[in-house]
Design goal:
The structure holds two protein chains of two kinds. Chain A is 74% helix and 2% strand. In chain A, helix 2 crosses helix 7. The longest helix of chain A is centred in the C-terminal third of the chain and has 32 residues. By secondary structure, chain B is of the alpha/beta class. Chain B is 38% helix and 25% strand. Chain B has nine helices and ten strands. In chain B, helix 1 crosses helix 2, helix 4 crosses helix 5 and helix 4 runs parallel beside helix 6. The longest helix of chain B has 17 residues. Classes of the chains: A mainly alpha, B alpha/beta. At the A-B interface, strand 1, helix 2, helix 6 and helix 12 of A face strand 1, helix 1, helix 3, strand 4 and helix 4 of B. Strand 1 of chain A pairs antiparallel with strand 4 of chain B, so a sheet runs across the interface.
């Protein structure tokens, strides 16, 4: 048994105490990260039970979308397919991760209502569950990433290590957004609807399907002020062998620090109440 | 095996449920309230609260078998959930030494589309067992459930009784020092009930402390040595089970 053998639960004892308790929740969730992994894995398996391809179904439909949009838009925008296809493929796959973690984050606590109301499992466990589940899907979609990069020769210039740094920054940022929205959605049931609309809007406003070109300078507001652009660019650009601007890293790191500070504070103050929201 | 001290200490425990009406859960309403301010804003400040427990204090040590009695809505389940660590006290404190197992809802973590085996694994993981510990216990759990080859089939193909057997077998495979139960969980047909009783008794014997909420006085006399009555969230002192009648009359 790896459960705690000592439990102390008390009423509010001031702000500092609430932060300590929130921190303990976080620590416990890391000590039992295997549980979050088991739950995430179970989610993936149970969603595709009985289907032959399993999660590869999404990979397949995503691959179809990549091919369709790649060829169509390359023609429309008169772009060389060798550069446009890898661009679209990376965009669709990684924006999928962004959209997945954020929209599914809304259900993190709502779906865990049963477990939260009768066990002392850490709340963070369920946040990691959502994040890990989407990383498992990403693992399947890597087939598209690797396939496209090799087929169109973009692998020669790509920088996987820098892309990995981008993935870490991206997932770190998505995790707090996911948790924050999980808490908000538990309290206000229309948050998920808003989130879905925003993410959909962002998908079209962010260069996922379209290439910002010369008419569109690098510091255009649609790019600079768009957090989704920075999240995506930190992963996509290194894979395509392009440089990532310093601004993107600055924005991502600032978002990471401020986002977690805000989310953690909100968690510390609402932690006791979340179970009652459900 | 070393026996760590097992104890429960509950001091002035108060627990209030904020009631978030369906209305209050809409962001639009909240924004509208903020926008108009004034009159409506006053109801915004504090959501209605229901006091589920107030000033509950008691101490239990190894060997104590506490029966909780009280009418529906008197706070028995809330107290059990607070003891399990799910509900945080609003005031006071709970301190528990020992591994806690809460058998409050057998259906916890049961996924009907997964196989019996997968459900046992999942349930074990939630209860805090490692994968290895679960595999070690798998044979014993499978045998006890008596489901045999059915364990390889999805749980949704089971009859209600079979589902109950599986849930019971999985939930009671834990080792705990503090056992929390909402009603005595005897399920299944007559044969299985006998087995279930035996298994629960063994679990209770191994556990240092049992807290059992029940309406069945016969059951309480059988398994508990102490009793506490909850009435509207207020607890009576913990008394000997032999004084159950006096407590009920009071």
């Amino acid at each position: 048994m790896d459960t705690a053998t000592h439990m102390l639960r008390t009423g509010r004892r001031g702000t500092l105490f609430e932060y300590q308790m929130a921190l303990r929740d976080l620590r416990n969730s890391f000590e039992r990260i295997g549980l979050a992994w088991s739950l995430a894995w179970h989610d993936v398996v149970s969603r595709y039970r009985g289907s032959i391809l399993g999660p590869l179904w999404i990979t397949l439909s995503m691959a179809l979308m990549v091919l369709g949009i790649g060829f169509l838009y390359a023609g429309l925008f008169q772009q060389p397919i060798d550069t446009f296809m890898p661009f679209v493929a990376m965009g669709i796959v990684f924006f999928g991760v962004i959209a997945g973690v954020i929209t599914e984050g809304c259900q993190t606590f709502v779906n865990a209502a049963g477990m939260l109301s009768q066990t002392s499992l850490p709340m963070f466990t369920f946040v990691w569950r959502t994040v890990l589940r989407n990383l498992i899907y990403l693992g399947h979609h890597l087939i598209i990433v690797v396939g496209v990069l090799i087929w169109f020769g973009a692998w020669k210039t790509s920088n996987p290590l820098l892309a990995l740094v981008g993935v870490v920054l991206m997932v770190g940022n998505l995790a707090w957004a996911s948790m924050l929205l999980g808490i908000a959605s538990a309290r206000f049931r229309d948050v998920p609807q808003i989130v879905i609309s925003v993410v959909q809007f962002a998908m079209f406003m962010t260069p996922v399907f379209w290439l910002p070109d010369a008419r569109f300078s690098d510091n255009h507001l649609v790019l600079v002020a768009n957090p989704f652009y920075h999240l995506l660019e930190a992963v996509r650009a290194p894979l395509l062998g392009e440089a990532v601007s310093g601004l993107t890293y600055t924005v991502l790191i600032a978002m990471l620090v401020l986002g977690w500070a805000a989310t953690f504070s909100i968690f510390a103050t609402t932690r006791r109440r979340i179970v009652h929201y459900l | 095996m070393k026996a760590p001290p097992v104890s429960i200490s509950c001091r002035d425990l108060s627990l209030r449920f904020p009631v978030y009406g369906v209305d209050a859960k809409s962001l639009k309403k909240k924004l509208a309230q903020v926008a108009v301010g004034g009159r409506l804003g006053s109801t915004l400040a504090g959501a209605t609260e229901v006091t589920a427990l107030s000033g509950v204090s008691f101490d239990l040590k190894a060997g104590d078998r506490l029966g909780l009695i009280g009418h529906n809505g008197s706070g028995k389940t809330t107290l059990l959930r607070a003891l399990s660590g799910a509900y945080e006290p609003d005031e006071g404190q709970i301190e528990i030494e020992g591994r806690i197992a809460a058998l409050l809802d057998l259906q916890l973590g049961i996924d009907p589309s997964a196989t019996g085996i997968d459900n046992i694994r999942l349930r074990g993981r939630i209860a805090g067992l490692s994968s290895r510990e679960i595999e070690e216990r798998m044979d014993e759990i499978a045998e006890f459930s008596g489901l045999g080859a059915f364990l390889g089939l999805p749980v949704k193909t089971y009859s209600a009784g079979m589902q109950a057997r599986l849930a019971f077998a999985a939930a009671t495979s834990v080792e705990a020092d503090v056992l929390l139960m909402d009603e005595w969980l005897a399920v299944g047909d007559a044969d299985f009930q006998k087995l279930a009783h035996k298994r629960l008794l063994k679990l209770v014997e191994r556990a240092g402390i049992l807290v059992l909420a029940s309406h069945d006085h016969h059951l309480l006399r059988l398994y508990c040595n102490k009793v506490m009555r909850l009435e509207g969230g207020v607890a009576s002192p913990v008394t000997d089970i032999r004084k159950l009648d006096e407590l009920l009359a009071a």
